[in-house]
Amino acid sequence: MSIKWGFRVPYINHLMKTYVLLLGFYLLATNGFASDKTTIRIGVQPTGTLAWELSVLQTEDNAKNLDFNIETHPIATSEAGKIALQSGAVDVIVSDWIWVSKARSEGNDFTFYPYSTTSGSLIVPESSPILTIKDLKGKRLGIAGGELDKNWLLLQTLAQQAQLDLNTSVEKVFGAPPLINEQLKQGRVDAALNYWHYGAKLEAQGYRQVIDGKGLLKGLGIPENVPALGYVFKQSWATGHKKGVDSFFQASKKAKQLLCASEPDWKKIIPLIQADDMATQTKLRQRYCEGEVTRWGAPEQQAAERIYTLLRKVSNNLLTGKSEHLQPGTFWSQD
Known about the structure:
Blueprint: H1 9-30, E1 38-44, H2 49-57, H3 60-63, E2 68-74, H4 78-87, E3 92-95, H5 97-105, E4 110-116, E5 121-124, E6 140-144, H6 150-161, H7 166-169, E7 171-175, H8 177-185, E8 191-194, H9 196-204, E9 208-212, H10 213-219, E10 229-234, H11 235-240, H12 242-261, H13 263-268, H14 270-273, H15 278-290, H16 298-314
Parallel strand pairs: 1-2, 6-7, 6-8
Antiparallel strand pairs: 3-10, 4-10, 5-8, 5-9
Helix pairs in contact: 2-12, 6-10, 9-15, 12-15
């Protein structure tokens, strides 16, 4: 006995096509059209301020409104971030435009978009007789970042204008940022030139700021607030993902504004700050918010060229490379 099915081949084909079409709509719906979003792989130091901002962006309420996806990759140091970017392990890191220009002169495709104008500071005990750079003569100076630290180079340049050679008139002590802070606390150095967040932690404990990175530039005749740090990425990658990249920059700026203006948002990221006392939290927030980039145009980029010239001269090309000028394309154009 044979059974005859009542379905014809064309009808079965129609059912299959309908099933495939419905399945496609289902997958798009359940994935929120995620395939249309740019995924941005970001190298992040867990204790850095970028981690603060990304935690704001990735809250449930904010993430659903973003038209890009964030994929964070922990990095231990800024140098590790550069290696990750160069190897293609990440798309974006935070670094400086001096490094970008040098990399471009060597044939790399990196470019820079501003992130913060806050940089290092010169810190002394509250009762210290050191009131100006001239007062460093004969003192012990702790320096974070090594001989080619940009703040150290700029401090030397400003001192030279006052006929003071810091290389011969101070006792230099180089070390990692935490070590330099400890050296100052223990009285083994008279002053500390350190990264801004380490300086802020000292200020919260009663230490005094003599001058910061912006003050150094103003002393050198550069009044513009030139970003010290920025997002660094491949120009070719950004060109191919322009919508997502531009949206990320806008969202990042909004996240910074929320952290500076909204108490609930600020309180959410306090566990990332690694500071239990209110005084340190408050000072870190103040210095962080002072770094907001409010202007970024021709005047600031021309000022960057002047800073580049100063750093090139004082470092004898070691920091900048041999190029006499900032490389074209160092700064990302959103046009």
